[in-house]
Amino acid sequence: MNKKKRPVTRKYLDILDAATDLFLEQGYQEASITKLLNRFGGSRETIYRHFRSKEELFAAVLDHQLKDYLEFMLSLDIKSNDLKEGLMEWSSALVGVVTSERYIKLRRLVISEVANRSELGRIYFDHTYMKGTTAISEFLSRQQEKGRLKAIDCVRMTSYLVGMMLYEIMHARIMNVMPEPTKEQISYLTEQVLDDFITVFGNP
Fold this sequence. Notes:
By secondary structure, the chain is mainly α.
C-alpha cells in the first residue's frame, strides 16, 4: 500500500528547518528525535505523523535544502550579452552558493552517511550536478550561435566549466583547508577560470 504524500504545511517546514539545524550542528549519529523535540517543541506524534524514522527525516531535510539550491540556480537570469560578463554572472552565483558554510556542512554530512544510505546520494545527485546548469547551457548555446564559442556540445561544455570552477575550491572547503570565501576571492577565482575557459573553448 502506497503512503499518501502529505501536503507541505508550515508545521512540516518548521520541523525541517529545526531538523536541518540539528543535523548540521551535531551530525547524523548524534541527532535524535528526542533532541529535535527539545528544540522544536510539540509532540513525538507530530514528528511521526510526517516522518516514520530519523532516516526518512534526514532524507526529507536533504531534499528540502537541495531544492532551494536547485530552484535558485534554475531561476538565474543571465542578462549580459557579453560572453565573459554572462559567464561571470552565473559562475559567481554558483561558487557563492556551493562554498557557503551551510552548503559545505550539508555536503560533508551526506558524504559521511552515503556509504550506509545510498538513497541520500541519489537525492543529492538528482538535485545538483548538471540539473542546476540549465541557464548557463542556454547561454553557451546563444554564444555559439554568435560564433563566440567552438561548436562543442553545450551540456558537455557546461560540465567542463563547472569542473574547472569548482574542483579545487570545493575540495579545499570540504577538507576545511580554507574558510568561506569572500566576494572578492570569488570574483578573483571566477575571472581566472573564465579566462582559461574562454582561451580553450572560445573562437579566436
